[in-house]
Amino acid sequence: MPLSPLLARLGIRLPIIQAPMAGVSPPAMAAAVSDAGGLGSIGVGAVDADGARAMIEAVRERTSRPFNVNLFCHQPAKADAAVEQAWIARLRPEFEALGATPPGTLGEIYQSFVTDDAMLRMLLEMRPAVVSLHFGLPSGAVLGALREAGIALLATATSLAEARAIEAAGIDAIVAQGWEAGGHRGMFDPDRPDDRIGTLALTRLLSRETRLPVIAAGGIMDGAGIAAALALGAAAAQLGTAFVGCDESLADPGYRAALASDAAQHTAMTRAISGRPARSLANRFTAVGAGVADAAVPAYPIAYDLGKALHAAGKGHGEYGFGAQWAGQGAPLARFMPAAELVATLARELEAARV
Question: CA quadruple 156, 254, 339, 233: dihedral positive or negative?
Fold first, then answer.
């Protein structure tokens, strides 16, 4: 398989990137994917600088290959006590049905990279080969420091406008996240209208209208999907849901069972779980959020404080339906095997599809 400029820049031989799924994709998965020729990823948006350092070190203990470190660049949350108390009251019956009591107040459980100087210092010291950015971009000074450290930069776009901002910022490649994608929408501003562009249309649009390499993301589960994205101008494909069922995944038993069941046929975009739009397997939490006005949900990640508490209460009673069971619309195509085996399978399928 010929090595494109993007693959050479990232230090990988296959156009396969394992999506950085915070809380689901651990260092062991990232190392396995990278060793197999793709780009493994870890998501550190939910941990502080020390936690991120430990994760980077854990990957490096397992592989010498390049891997990606993903960061959240959302605007810091604007607390609204009235909205938060109303949200707690709305979900109180769900807690009480589980014999639990919701927290009395909610807090901003994750710090955005845009304000996290300690995270930047750690990255400049550890110098991972690749850093990817979700929910927006940090300042030009931060990007300049990362580039000066020799780090390749990727950033998510859900629209042409976001892609042009990424291009203007000097990022190395754009992750074109289609509406089909599982997990959080990478929108810079979740309160702006979303055109909900699908992966294939967005990939083609960005590959034609920008000068940067495009990485297609959303609904891609096998080699045929990767081949289709490459045919439309993508330089690589990023797969997340495809790796949720891997042996190394941290997905809990309820999440795995749902992915392997008829539940995989149904996904829903919801703010209810975390406060930002995100695609999950349809479950008890997405049902609670159905029809709820966006303005009624606290800001991200304040809403996630309550969401995680409800999931913990549910798990204590064997109820996994309140989990963040992130999955894209390709979920019915999920396979269950070690991550390295999945990468090898994807590579064989891609080669066959190209013949």
Answer: negative
SS3 of residue 336 by DSSP: coil
Domain 1-76+111-248+338-355: top CATH class:
alpha beta
Q: What is the mean pLDDT of residues 246-256?
A: 98
CA-CA distances (angstroms) from residue 73 to 70, 121, 283, 289, 301?
10, 16, 28, 25, 12
> Does pLDDT of 174 surpass 70?
yes
E strands in the chain:
16-18, 40-43, 67-72, 130-134, 152-157, 173-177, 183-184, 214-217, 236-239, 267-270, 278-281
> Is 65 within 8 Å of 34 (Cβ atoms)?
yes
DSSP 3: P
* Domain assignments of the chain as residue spans, ordered by start: 1-76+111-248+338-355, 78-110+252-328
Q: Does residue 265 carry a pLDDT above 90? A: yes
Give phi and psi for 211, each to the nearest 5.
-95, -5
Extract the tokens encoding 44. 């550190």
pLDDT at 354 over 90: no
Check residues 222 and 3 and name the one with the higher pLDDT.
Answer: 222
